[in-house]
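Teaching note: in complex prediction, the entire set of molecules is handled at once rather than each chain in isolation. The prompt given to students was simply: 'Predict the structure of this complex.' The entities are:
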Amino acid sequence: EAQVTQNPRYLITVTGKKLTVTCSQNMNHEYMSWYRQDPGLGLRQIYYSMNVEVTDKGDVPEGYKVSRKEKRNFPLILESPSPNQTSLYFCASSLFLAAPDEQYFGPGTRLTVT
Amino acid sequence: ELKVEQNPLFLSMQEGKNYTIYCNYSTTSDRLYWYRQDPGKSLESLFVLLSNGAVKQEGRLMASLDTKARLSTLHITAAVHDLSATYFCAVSVQGAQKLVFGQGTRLTINP
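The expected output is the structure of the full assembly:
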């Protein structure tokens, strides 16, 4: 089954404790992206990757890091989480963003930073 | 900077009625997406609109794109309760690999 998986689905942590949210897709997609969803703001793009070792900032990259060492994986790293990073996070992938192709979204990770 | 605005943000309607959600964007773009999100769930792709005048329909939902007006509409015909969800439009930034989302429209359809 074609899918995007994220882990963990729920995470409560404390300020400053490094964490990683994993994202994996099994569709051989080139493009992967991370979004955060906050009430009233829709989804905002954090980082995206067009291929292995190619990443770039979205609209809200501060406080986040990503890496793309393998095509299927695109982890999101919070080196020193803060309460304003409490949010619902989605990973997404598509064949190419420029193609007439939909994006497939993962199930989401709800992060709470206290 | 590309801005995407949806209206209304909240919509409560009766079953059987028709209504339209609007998505306005501020700069030239080459594609527009509509997504559906059920409470506590992920986003599900509904439509991808690629050119001026594009119209796509799936069941009771129809989406259209007017690139000159920088406007997309999502029309709901004879609404049914199962269509209750939050609907997002998203616009790609021309020449870049980014998507910018609207705030979302929370649609509640009452029996």
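Point out the following to students. The CA atoms of residues 29 and 95 of chain B lie 9 Å apart. Chain B is about 0% helix and 55% strand.
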